[in-house]
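Re: [ENG-882] Designed sequences occasionally contain unexpected residues at chain ends

Forwarding the minimal case from QA. Structure tokens:
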């Protein structure tokens, strides 16, 4: 979001959804600034457990490198893309991480473009997305007392 005004008692902020927030200055403890210097895109991409991780990491790195050297994105990307490897393993997915440094306020646009290109490249290589694990209650617990005439 953005800071819209600073007064003696309150600060007025507007978030990305357009909501205006009024915060008492005494409640402000820490401030983060995403528009100073540079920004960092950190993408966590889930893949299925059966995925060839070397192939997926290589594909992500190639996509990142292509974006870095794309003339349309040259002014927005400040450094090389870096595939950091496996970030997390969950019951339903393996999470791979890619990061790239960008100009301020362009990190969201760069992240969306990277996601699109990674999805397209994964589709070309038949790299599967994880299948969500869904739990089902089977009602196999204690059925409670039987009703009169109930034959279990």
């Amino acid at each position: 979001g953005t800071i819209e005004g600073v007064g003696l008692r309150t600060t007025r902020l507007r978030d990305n959804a357009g909501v205006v927030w009024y915060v008492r200055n005494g409640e402000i403890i820490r401030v983060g600034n995403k528009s100073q210097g540079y920004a960092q895109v950190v993408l966590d991409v889930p893949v299925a457990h059966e995925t060839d991780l070397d192939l997926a990491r290589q594909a992500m790195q190639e996509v990142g490198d292509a974006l870095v050297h794309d003339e349309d994105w040259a002014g927005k990307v400040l450094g090389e893309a870096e595939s950091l490897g496996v970030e997390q393993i969950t019951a339903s997915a393996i999470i791979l991480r890619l990061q790239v440094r960008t100009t301020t306020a362009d990190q969201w646009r760069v992240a969306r473009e990277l996601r699109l290109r990674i999805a397209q490249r994964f589709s070309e290589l038949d790299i599967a997305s994880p299948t969500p694990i869904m739990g089902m209650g089977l009602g196999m617990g204690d059925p409670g007392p039987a009703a009169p005439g109930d034959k279990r």
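QA comment: On inspection the terminal residues look reasonable. The CA atoms of residues 46 and 111 lie 15 Å apart. Proposing we downgrade this to a documentation issue.
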